[in-house]
Amino acid sequence: PLYDGRCRRLPPENRPDKPAALRVAVPDRTISLTDRLQGECAQNLAKECGDFILKRSDGVYAYQLAVVVDDALSGVTEVVRGRDLLSSAPRQIFLYRCLGYPPPSYLHTPLLLDESGERLSKRGGSSNLAELRRRFSSPEPILGALAHAAGLLPRPEPAALADLIAVYDEKKLVRDDIRLPAVFP
Question: Would you name the residues annotated as active-site residues?
Answer without folding.
Answer: 122
